[in-house]
Design brief:
By secondary structure, the protein is α/β, with parallel strands linked by helices. It is built from 8 helices and 6 strands. The mean pLDDT is about 90.
């Protein structure tokens, strides 16, 4: 394994948690999964986003910081492999899409303080799927509140992710085209992903297709 701390990112329904779990098991790595199922603001957000966006984003930021601080700050990142199904900058990406300008200014100040104290991944992986496939995945996993998500919202989040990745010249970023890829039932596809993690990459974006 060429990397000690890997963060796997992607849009809603991209398969981040499933892939992180499988990879952590394969590499016997420490697994860090985002805890969001008990967030009281999330179901309401998809029904009435303007009403609860600010407390939602603040609660996500606090929860993610608390988890990463506990799981990673005291970890020996040089001798133990860790795989997380999110990157702390996810908070800023969603906040920039969901908050009003004055709210975002305050949020940015808090975020900068928090992000500076957390380790950055050796490799950031982004799982790319188009909106139609994301919707199919969301419907398949059956979280009732997620069925409220509109395709336009998924488009917005995807565009913000891709723009964000373009602005990380000093971060090793692997963008994997997952369109039509079944890494759960097709072991050859999973093995391809495993092989990717055994390679080193230059700083900036490296695009990979598994087709």
């Amino acid at each position: 394994m060429m990397h000690n701390f890997i963060a796997i990112e992607g849009n809603i329904g991209a398969g981040k948690t499933t892939l992180s779990t499988l990879l952590a098991k394969h590499f016997n790595a420490r697994l860090v999964l985002e805890q969001f199922s008990d967030n009281p603001f999330l179901p309401e957000f998809y029904k009435n986003p303007t009403k609860v966006a600010f407390p939602l984003e603040l609660s996500f930021l606090a929860d993610r910081y608390g988890q990463l601080k506990d799981d990673l700050i005291n970890l020996d990142l040089f001798n133990e492999v860790s795989i997380a199904d999110y990157f702390i900058y996810k908070s800023l990406i969603f906040a920039s899409n969901n908050l009003k300008e004055d709210e975002l200014l305050l949020y940015q100040r808090l975020f900068d303080i928090i992000a500076a104290s957390l380790p950055k991944p050796d490799l950031l992986i982004y799982l790319y799927l188009d909106t139609a496939q994301l919707q199919k995945n969301i419907a398949k996993r059956g979280r009732v509140y997620e069925l409220e998500i509109k395709p336009e919202y998924l488009d917005q989040i995807q565009n913000r992710y891709l723009a964000f990745l373009q602005g990380l010249p000093n971060q090793k970023v692997l963008v994997i085209d997952m369109q039509g890829i079944d890494f759960i039932d097709d072991k050859t596809k999973f093995e391809q992903i495993v092989a990717l993690l055994k390679n080193d990459y230059p700083k900036g974006i490296t695009n990979i297709s598994l087709h």
